[in-house]
Every structure is written in C-alpha cells, then in structure tokens.
Amino acid sequence: xxxxxxxxxxxxxxxAFAASTGSPWSAKYKNLNASYLIYSGEPGERAAPSKTDRKxxxxxxxxxxKEIFDSLYPDEKDVTCTSEAGxxxxxxxxxxxxxxxxxxxxxxxxxxLRNGEPHSGxxx
Length: 124
Prior knowledge:
The protein is of the alpha+beta class. Helices cover 22% and strands 33% of the residues. Keywords: Signal.
C-alpha cells in the first residue's frame, strides 16, 4: 500500500505543475474526472475480483486527461488502437493516454491491490 501511495504522490505533483498556465503554482489538488473498475485477471481479460487477485483500473477523462496526455510526449509511432483518423497514443511506463477526435482525451492506469504494484489498467 505504501508503494501505491508513493506512486500517486509522485504522480500528483508533476501534474499540478504541468497544469499551471502562467499563474503561480498553488500546490493544491484539483478535481479529477475518473472512473474505476476492480477486477482480477489481465486488463484485456478481466474477471470478477477474488480474494487473491484484485486490481484496480482507473480511467481519467476530460481536462485532467489532456494535462496527463500533454505531459507524456511524444506520440507513439505507428501504434493505434482503432482505425479512427487522428487517433494519437502516448505512454510512459504503466500510464497511457489516447486522443480520438470522436471522444477526446482518455488516460488509463492501474494498480494491483494485493501488492501495490502499478500496471496499465487497460488495453486496446
């Protein structure tokens, strides 16, 4: 659990800094547009959570997702999840984001709730 909290803490500070738009950095948390799913298995083959296998997948949308996306440059080369024209993907470690003209920015991340290790939280 300490690893999870440490990861989230180190993730929040750069996001807050990246979000500044010329005004002084406030060090205040912002609201987050997100949804989550607790499951077992792998992101592409999810099943009901069990006592021994519980993971959380977190999907962030809207302006927070755009801020994360902008922080993860550059775009992945020759990688797409759909055939939609204009789709863009960015990834650093277990945090990845997409931009699609049809539905905007979305970012995905996740954690193993049994050991605190991060994972991607989603697959194409």
